[in-house]
Amino acid sequence: MTGFTTTILHNDRLSDIEHGSIHKPIHTAVTYGYADARELAAVFQNKQSGYRYGRQGNPTVTALEDKITKMEQGVASLCFASGMAAIAAIPLGLLKAGDHLISSVFLFGNTSNLWQTSEGLGISISLVDATQAENIAAAITAATRIVFVETIANPRTQVADLQRIGELCRERGILFVVDNTMTSPYLFHPKDVGAGLVINSLTKAISGHADVLGGCITDTGAYDWNLYPNITSNAKKQPSPLWGITQLRAKALRDFGACLSPDSAHQIAIGAETMALRIERQCSNTVQLTAMLAAHRNVAAVYYPGLSGHPQHQLASDLFVAAGSIFSFELAAHIDCFDFLNQLKIAISATHLGDNRTLIIPVAHTIFFEMGIERRKTMGIAESLIRVSVGIEEAADLLADFRQALDFFN
Ligand SMILES: *Cc1c(COP(=O)(O)O)cnc(C)c1O
Questions:
Q1: Which of 157, 178, 201 to mutate to test the pocket of ligand 1 (most atoms within 8 A of CB)?
Q2: Which of 246, 253, 330, 406 could form a disulfide with 301 if both were Cys (CB 3.0 to 4.6 A apart)?
Q3: pLDDT band of 380, cuts 50, 70, 90
Q4: Is the CB of 148 under 6 A from ligand 1?
Q5: Assessment of whether the complete model's pTM goes beyond 0.90
Q6: 387 lines ligand 1 (CB under 6 A)
Q7: DSSP letter for each residue of 119-183
Q8: CATH architecture of 275-407
Q9: Rounded distance, CA 75 to CA 360, Å?
Q10: Ligand 1 mean position to 114 CA, how many Å?
């Protein structure tokens, strides 16, 4: 087995590509012709592999799915038009009215909204503090089908008790789904803690350049689909390790239509080639920046699992290769967060994370504004909280930029 980057760089060449091309070409065709019409029928009946229609599969997208499967050390992956489309596929493709999903309360804002929408469709949702597996255990009912958590929560960086939640789900036969976006498959493999399905927003670290949207679900092979009640007889025509992905492909990708375009798949694959290099630089920058901020008199608090004072610092050190490149902080009370942001010359006031550029955002006023102050309180989000996604600029430039902006308020 080769290393992470070697594997990604050379994966397309493992199957023959015409002219010795080193990239999988961008296949733009929406439909696929067969010289023997019986073959067309066999493809439609899943008796033979092959492409039929662009919404249900595309060779350029398949090449990307194959790389993400290798990154996650899984068995199969399915790409979507965005990370949210991949997450929405979980209730749409795997749950029914009356089913119960337990989720971490510390969630990406749009996922939190999606759970509210799912409740409207008759799925019951329990939101619990997932930093302690006991809270998950206490919420389990006979109807519980899925436990869903993020690795490091955005923006307050709470780390889920992944190992123990994984053990609990295995004991109870519950499907464990992990959103790995904040860590990426370079820093963490949810398969190692027993997650059956892994979500990655490809828009973030995997593509890395803030110029393309995409999402992916990977089946790690850790879950026995024979234990899952809602599998259709159609999906059961496949071998059981493929039941989950087959059902998601039919019920979520095909029927709801949020497919990844081949152009986007190519762009994401190009970004993925340098992901490991970018993440190493981003993590190293983040360690330096959070240390500087934590020691500065104009900073009241810094939240980063890489800092020894973080409540889940030990957990994060045990689980992840590094603590990632997202952190949040609060300024001293006398500083207005907008005045501070406007002093920065390099860090950009913008949403998004995992980009090459350092991005900074006042959370309660923007991405978590819609949910209101009460909900923000339950998620541990102070009104003055600022989130930073650290880029690949030279560390000295970032440190100087943040230092001059902080010193302005002396
Ligand atoms: C950004 C993000 C998503 C959604 O991804 P999109 O590609 O923007 O739809 C989901 N989960 C987490 C943790 C994210 O950061």
A1: 201
A2: 330
A3: confident
A4: no
A5: yes
A6: no
A7: HHTT-EEEEE-TTSHHHHHHH--TTEEEEEEESB-TTT--B--HHHHHHHHHHHT-EEEEE-TTT
A8: Alpha-Beta Complex (3.90)
A9: 36
A10: 12
Alpha carbon of 28 to those of 17, 63, 67, 143, 369: distances in Å?
16, 14, 20, 43, 40
Domain boundaries, the chain: 4-99+162-272, 275-407
The pLDDT value recorded for residue 410 is 84
Predicted pLDDT of residue 46: 87
- pLDDT higher than threshold 90 for residue 333: yes
Mind listing the pLDDT tens digit for each residue in 283-322? 999 999 999 999 999 999 999 999 999 999 999 999 999 9
Task: Return the DSSP state at 31.
Answer: B
Residue 363 identity: V
Residue 259 per-residue DSSP state: P
Quick: pLDDT tens for 107-136.
999 999 999 999 999 999 999 999 999 999
Contact by Cβ (8 Å): 175, 146: yes
Between CA 357 and CA 272, with CA 327 as vertex, the angle to 5 degrees is 45
Tell me the average pLDDT across 367-394.
Answer: 91
Taking only the tens place, the pLDDT of each residue in 87-105 is 999 999 999 999 999 999 9
Answer CATH for 4-99+162-272 from 3.30.70.20, 3.40.640.10, 3.40.50.920, 3.30.450.20: 3.40.640.10
pLDDT, average across residues 245-262: 97
Q: Which residue has tokens 């024979």?
A: 226
Strands 299-303 and 326-331: antiparallel
Mean pLDDT of 24-38: 97
Q: Is 203 in the pocket of ligand 1 (CB under 6 A)?
A: yes
Give the mutation target among 152, 154, 181 for probing the ligand 1 site: most ligand atoms within 8 A of CB.
181
CA 353 – ligand 1 centroid, Å:
9
User: Is any atom of ligand 1 closer than 6 Å to the C-beta of 160?
Assistant: no
User: What pLDDT score does 135 carry?
Assistant: 98
**C-beta neighbour count of 304 within 10 angstroms:** 27
Query: For residue 71, is pLDDT > 90?
Result: yes
In the reported structure, the alpha carbon of residue 199 is separated from the centroid of ligand 1 by a whole-number distance in angstroms of 9
User: Cβ–Cβ contacts within 10 Å for residue 6, how many?
Assistant: 11
Atom from ligand 1 closest to the CA of residue 107: 13
The rounded distance, in Å, linking the Cα atoms of 401 and 110 is 31
pLDDT tier at 164, thresholds 50, 70, 90: very high
